[in-house]
Amino acid sequence: MDKDTAVAMAQAAIKANNKRIVDAVLEIKAEREQSGAAEKPLAERPLVAVTCSTGWESYAIVEELTKTKKFRVRALYRTPGTQAAERLETLLERVESADPGLLTLHSGVDMTSAEKLTEAFKDCDGLVLYCTANEAKAGKITNHGDDPVGGRIAFMRQVEASLVALKANPSVQQVITLVFPPDKVTGIVDDYPLIPWWIDQRHRFSDLLRGQGIDVTCIHRPAYYYAMHRVDYTNTKQQRGDSSMAQTMISEDNLSGINHPDIVINWVDVRDVGKWCGTCFEYPEVFLNQTFSIASAAMTGNEAVAIAERTNKHGTTFKYKQFPMEMMKKYAKTTPEVIYPIRYAEWYGYDGNAYDFASNDDLADLERIHPRWTFEAKLESWGITDIKPAQK
Length: 392
What we know:
392 residues, alpha/beta, Rossmann fold, globular
């Protein structure tokens, strides 16, 4: 089978599955609205825990879950006193002022400790379980994509500890896992490379838990977040690393990326992940033990540039600038944070692995429940639309 056929078949299957899920949610939602059920008192709302809540994605999930006011939320994290922990504390103050008791913080949670996780999951009805091949202490990452031995060990220690804690807490009726989109060509199309170990391991994670009797909802979301070099749901001064690549910002005549400008990449905004987590917990009868795919956009680097120019208020021009792969590989020897972006670039583009999961047309069904956070809105929130051209 050729690559385009394999990808088209996979995308059609994803679209059909998403339509089935969306139809089911909307049918139940309509029935609930007709019945006019009253809002539950705070103490009766499901208690949902989110691991790694100081992280970029998990923090967004915590905030989006609190916005629904349908759940009590327990934010789990390891290290107090960091910038990311302060962000959680600021959120807690805001939520407490309007809805006391809706959000609680639980620090000291080591993802490799079954004892700590057992305590953290106590009395919870649902859990967002984020495990990664990276191992970090107060933001210092110690394992990366070039370390399959250490990375696998770090990942499986988290999985094993989580499984012990879940079996000790049968109150947890639904676990959400966040995983990269499934591969569409390896083993189907001739002469395509094997799935990278750290992607393959994440794929096996949800089924491993299901095989142990855990009810898992697996959300496949892109590996790319909007403009990888700007941090969403944090203060804008925070960077993703110390390298010059991590600190590159969008500016006049510069919109950088690690992929070829004509390759379609799926992007996701972390707030969209958070919204869908809320929907999964709200409609467990639809999502229990289901796997589905989400994204916020699908676009090339050149299309991102066109959007930036179209939305800018002052006629400022932008140009796509691809990070040189050979330079990135040299950086990787001394700057570990560059390794994952290199692997993404190779997987998406240089190895031609057709990793993108869907086109914008295929995402239309999802918008029947949650309008996507668009790249246009993201550029406006970053202030890119207000960048004025320099005086020539």
